Each structure stands twice: as C-alpha cells, then as structure tokens.
Amino acid sequence: MITESLPDNEACAGSLKNMLDALSVINGKWKLALILCLVQSSKRFNEIQQEIPGISSRILAKELKDLELNDFIKRHVYPTTPVSIVYEATAYSRTLKNVIGELSTWGGQHREKIKASMRKQS
C-alpha cells in the first residue's frame, strides 16, 4: 500500500511537462548510452561505435549531431592528415549523472523481466 500522498493535478501537470521536455532532448535508444560512453573519456567515432554494440554508423552520426546541437557533447576537429575528430562530454551532460545512475540501477534490478518481455516481442 502506498502511504505517500499523491500530487495534485497542478503538480502532476508540471512534472509531466518537465519530463516531456527532458525526454525531447534525451529520447531514443542511444543518447544516454552515448553520453555515458563520453563522460568516461573523449573518443573518436570508431571508438564510440566499438564501445556501444549494435549502433550503426548512420545512427551514431545522427545521434552525435543531435547531442552536439543540444550541448551535451563537443566535437573537436584536428587538422591532421587524415582529419581527426574527437567527441567529448560537456559539463551539461554530466548533470544527467543521477538519471543515468538510477536507470542503470533500475535496469539491473529488472534485467530478467526486461529480457523476458523482449523475447515475447520477437
């Protein structure tokens, strides 16, 4: 039984708006994984792709561009031959530390249920 009182309609609407705003910039399967990958250290495109299994080059390029547009990552171009491009997390992306930690904890606690559900969908 839940002993906490439920939020009123106004508080619920405000929370929903905040959540939808957040999801509009970190939506999708890959964005939080990419942020986590880059918070650990700066990486080149191929290093990111090797670290995150299952992401295609096309999707990775699109997601990196979206993250850069929303100031979650910085793209550094070095005038070498060939040109080197390195991606790094910004301080703004580090504000997601608690969100990523909570999602990781939740995913670990419910891993078997999630896997079973995914098997049913296939």
Automatic annotation (TrEMBL):
Metal-binding: is it a keyword of this entry?
no
HTH hxlR-type domain location is: 12-115
| GO MF term (any one) | DNA binding
- Record key words, sorted: DNA-binding, Transcription, Transcription regulation
Instruction: Give a single Pfam family match.
Output: HxlR
Report the SUPFAM superfamilies cross-referenced here.
Answer: Winged helix' DNA-binding domain
User: What InterPro entries does UniProt report for this protein, alphabetically?
Assistant: HTH_HxlR, WH-like_DNA-bd_sf, WH_DNA-bd_sf
Q: What is this protein called?
A: DNA-binding transcriptional regulator, HxlR family
Native source organism of the sequence: Chitinophaga arvensicola
